[in-house]
Amino acid sequence: MTAVTRAARAVSRAVLIGGLIGTVAACGTGTPASSEAQSAPGRGPGAWQEPAAYTYTLRSSEGERSLLGTFRISVRDGAVVQAAGLDDAGRRAVESAPDVVPTLGELLAELESARRDDADTAEAEYAADGHPVRIVLDGEENAVDDEARYVITAYERANSRRAGDLADPRPGT
Q: What's the predicted TM-score (pTM) here?
């Protein structure tokens, strides 16, 4: 795919997303979109500052990578301090390569790197507060197993919890 074609696709997506958001906003449901994911321009890494401490659940799928499975992750000062696999694939990943479990900042850096490298797909959706809730990457559309899909749930800043609870890897705690 040529650079011109990629640029045209990016502009088309931006116009489509902008139009879609404008249409939805015009409906005037009166309900804030605080819990809904958004992919609007202006959302994302520039609008969200990674907090010093937080926990989240990550479901990582697709592609041939060591980071596959579901994980509960605790982050402090920009580093993963606790990671627990919540399924068989996640447990194997944590046991074999614990250093590949990412912070949200690292996932956003991977997204930005894919965009700079002109990946065929480098998309994200964001929560109302700006943290990512879904990231989809595909370096080359016709390449096999270079895809990555990340779904982020149960995100919680640590300041809303007791400090001693930060490293508890169980979902919903």
A: 0.68
**Residue 79 confidence (pLDDT):** 96
* Distance between CA atoms of residues 122 and 112, nearest Å: 8
| Distance (Å, whole) CA 136 – CA 91 | 22
What pLDDT does 46 receive?
56
Report the C-alpha gap between 39 and 61 in whole angstroms.
20
Give pLDDT, residue 142: 82
Which residues does 45 contact at the CB level (< 8 Å), separation at least 6? 108, 111, 112
CA distance 44 to 93: 27
In the chain, which ranges are E strands?
53-61, 69-76, 79-85, 121-126, 132-138, 147-157
d(CA 157, CA 146): 31
